[in-house]
Amino acid sequence: MQTPNFEQSGWARVDISAPAQARIAEEFAAAGVAIETLDISDYTSGFSEWRTLAEYGGAYKSYAGDLDYCVLEKALEHYLSVVVAGPKSGMTAVDIGSCQSVVPTILRRVYGVRCLEQDLSYPAGVHGDRVGSSADSIPLADGSVDFMTLHCTFEHFEGHADSGFVAECARLLGPSGRVVILPLYLNATHCNVTGITDPSARAQVTWDPDAEYFCEIPEWQNRFGRHYSVRAVLDRVIAPAWRAGLHVRLVKVVNWSAVDPNLWLRWMLILERAPTAGSLPAAQPNAPHELRALLDEVRGLREAAAAQAARTETLGRRIEDLIARSPKRS
Asked: In whole angstroms, what is the distance from residue 233 CA to residue 189 CA?
């Protein structure tokens, strides 16, 4: 399509207020799409522990400059995605759009998960734990992934990469696999936004031909963002997921002000290989994450020490046997 005309109306076309989001929920209900609710106030205790993880005290602390609530938003997204994903030692995960994220480090250190980091900016192919690719063409084996996480990533997928990623989820997920996308940006209208002000640079972006509004927001400083209308997310994401055999869970987030009133997490999307019975996972864990990680490390050291002691005992018996069988000197 030709480069569209852009409004310079800031965020006026995007409404994340509670009344606007309630109307979106009504549209889904009218379309026959079930909605679950996640109350942030039920998760504040676990999130308070999560925020003490060492990964949030280093360079990542300056992620958004002086805007502390931006770091809170990211940390909350990370925490909720992990609660929903239910990581266990030995699982394989992929963090999509992972550049500079602390999630892979946390999943490896605290949970013993093999976490791959996928990002379009990485060199193409699989290099150790890094995967360079578009999200709609990930060079991993069919059924090789237990879960995937996306934090402020999905909205940046240009063209049909969002629908293509859904197809990749169906290919990559194992029998009990799931994908956690948050935030899922939903709006009264289908909007494309950009921080690009140079028309020649904007011409390189793939815009949605059916978007209702195109908004230039220079201070946002991102190439492309998509805010879905109900119709757009049904057509581009939910219906393709159903056709691919995935189970869709649409989650409305409420009481975000229990953490900070400035947060923008309103919706989550969970795609599952098999349907999950019951409600969303309860807040966890009961013990602080750091303590649990240390206990796991101590357990590993004890197991290693026991194995070493067994090897030492075996070696000692072999030496004694060799001495007993060797010729005695007069």
From this structure: 11
Q: Which of 24, 35, 8, 23 is nearest to 249 (CA)?
A: 35
**φ, ψ for residue 63, nearest 5 deg:** -50, -45
Does residue 183 have a cis bond before it (omega within 30 degrees)? yes
Domain ranges of the chain: 18-282, 287-330
Give the 3-state secondary structure percentages of the chain, helix then strand then coil, rounded to 5.
40, 20, 40
Closest CA to 230 of 28, 34, 35: 28
Which residues share a beta bridge with 181?
150, 269
Per the CB < 8 A criterion, the answer to whether 117 and 140 are in contact is no
Q: Taking the domain 18-282, which CATH number applies?
A: 3.40.50.150
This prediction has a pTM of 0.85
Q: What is the pLDDT of residues 172-222, one digit of tens each?
A: 999 999 999 999 999 999 999 999 999 999 999 999 999 999 999 999 999
Give one word for 248, left, alpha or beta, with left for phi > 0 and alpha for psi -120 to 50.
beta
Q: What are phi and psi of 234, to 5 degrees?
A: -65, -45
